[in-house]
Design goal:
Blueprint lengths: L7 E3 H10 L9 H15 L1 H11 L11 E2 L1 H10 L2 H19 L6 E3 L6 E8 L2 E5 L8 H14 L3 E5 L5 H13 L4 E3 L3 H10 L9 E3 L4 H10 L4 E2 L7 E6 L6 H11 L6 E7 L4 H12 L5 H11 L1 E5 L2 H11 L3 E5 L15 E4 L5 H5 L26 E8 L6 H17 L3 H8 L4
Parallel strand pairs: 1-12, 5-6, 5-8, 6-7, 8-9, 10-11, 10-13, 11-12, 13-14
Antiparallel strand pairs: 2-7, 3-4, 4-15
């Protein structure tokens, strides 16, 4: 096997590279292709959904019912699984539920000299669409990491969409739907599935918000339907950044980088070595582990195409590079790490300690593994209970408790309305003056 080609760069070069790096460009012509798919689904509904699925995914559906599954189907698929698979799906469910049930969302209710009530209330989003990818790998965990959280907050209807695959993969997806108590599932993937979720068809109900990662066509479809329907995020290729000051650069770290790289050729794996030793040892460990990796060609392409191995002299330098990237996953293996440093870090999910791994976050840690990518961790967060809720503000004036304060409130608002040239606004308040 040929030697792995890696990109080893210094702190100064890394800083310049990531400071000037542009976000990933869209695949050529993908926007127009997706726009056409969405438009055709809106116009022709079920008929077009079946036509596109048969053409793109190689399915042989003649009706939506052939691609539709209900709770009875989910249960049958779950019962087909071996006991060990059943047990582990249940274990993940318990971990995810235990974590998210502990997140408390509080309504707010206060009063002052004018308002009987001022506050905020939360309610569940009613109809949720879950997308679970199934191209180069099958992700039942993505179903659990979204649908179970929707159940925690009380969303009324959850529909699952997933692409056509093997019989085993379909049973695994449907079994996960059983574990997550999903209402219906549809064996459609790609941009056409997103369009069906966003706008509905004759037989598929429109969703209020769509969750779940997918390929570039799915991401572009989510971008185009956003506004007509809510989405969780514009997810890009998976990312991990590992910072370590260990001199031996252990096999575990090499394995963590490989684990991320096997998602796909576009996955990004970045390693920052604090100190002068360890980088060459790590690369040797990666090469040794790669020999027996089942997805070695995908991993090799990912590491050679998208990965950087960086040597820095201090954790501060490592943190500076990290914050330019704002990665999806950040692993930190640093002696004497201080928790006070956490709020200085930009990352979607942070994993501390040699015995920890982003892979644990993918499955059994508890928090959702649907995490912002492509530097979006600067302004967005991993999927959590808040994402399945909508918040409304409320105010109430039952009676005038304090005429002076009430008129003061009106006068200030009237002044601002007239300052903005909105005289109808001002009149609506002048008529209320006491």
């Amino acid at each position: 096997m040929r030697k792995l080609k890696v990109n080893k760069i210094s702190f100064s070069k890394a800083k310049s590279f990531f400071a000037n790096q542009k976000k990933q460009t869209k695949v050529k012509n993908i926007g127009q292709k997706v726009k056409k798919i969405i438009s055709n689904i809106q116009k022709k509904g079920d008929k077009e959904l079946i036509k596109i699925s048969n053409a793109i995914d190689g399915t042989k559906f003649s009706s939506i019912s052939e691609a539709s599954f209900s709770k009875g189907d989910f249960k049958k698929s779950f019962e087909k699984l071996d006991k060990n698979t059943q047990r582990n799906l249940k274990f993940l469910k318990k971990r995810i539920l235990d974590f998210h049930k502990k997140i408390k969302i509080h309504d707010l209710k206060i009063s002052d000299q004018v308002f009987s009530t001022l506050g905020q209330i939360h309610k569940p989003i009613e109809k949720i669409g879950i997308y679970a990818p199934g191209g180069k790998a099958v992700y039942p965990s993505s179903i659990l990491m979204t649908a179970l959280i929707a159940k925690v907050v009380g969303c009324k209807k959850i529909n699952l969409f997933f692409p056509s695959s093997s019989d085993f993969a379909r049973d695994l997806m449907l079994a996960s739907a059983h574990i997550a108590d999903i209402d219906k599932a549809f064996n459609f993937g790609g941009a056409h599935a997103i369009a069906a979720m966003a706008y509905g068809t004759e037989t598929i109900e429109k969703s209020d918000k769509i969750f779940g990662p997918g390929n570039s066509f799915v991401a572009e479809a989510k971008r185009q339907v956003f506004g007509d329907v809510g989405i969780d995020s514009f997810a890009g290729p998976s990312e991990v950044l590992i910072i370590s000051d260990e001199e031996d650069s252990s096999k575990e770290i090499a394995a963590d980088l490989i684990a991320q790289a096997e998602h796909g050729e576009d996955s990004k794996c970045i390693f920052i070595q604090v100190g002068k030793k360890g980088l060459n040892t790590l690369i040797n460990n990666i090469e040794n582990l790669l020999k027996d990796a089942p997805r070695k060609e995908i991993i090799r392409k990912s590491i050679e195409k998208n990965s950087q191995f960086i040597q820095v002299s201090s954790f501060d330098q490592a943190l500076e590079i990290n914050n330019l990237i704002a990665p999806e996953h950040l692993q930190i293996i640093i002696k004497n790490f201080k928790e006070s440093w956490l709020k200085k870090i930009s990352a979607g999910a942070i994993f501390l300690g040699k015995h920890n791994s982003a892979v644990l976050g993918d499955y059994a840690a508890g928090p959702s593994h649907v995490i912002p990518t492509n530097s979006a961790a600067r302004f967005s967060s991993p999927v959590s209970v808040e994402d399945f809720l909508v918040r409304s503000s409320i105010s109430s004036i039952k009676s005038i408790k304090n005429k002076k304060k009430y008129n003061e409130l009106l006068d200030s608002s009237i002044f601002m309305a007239e300052l903005e040239g909105l005289y109808g606004h001002a009149t609506a308040l002048k008529l209320r003056r006491k």
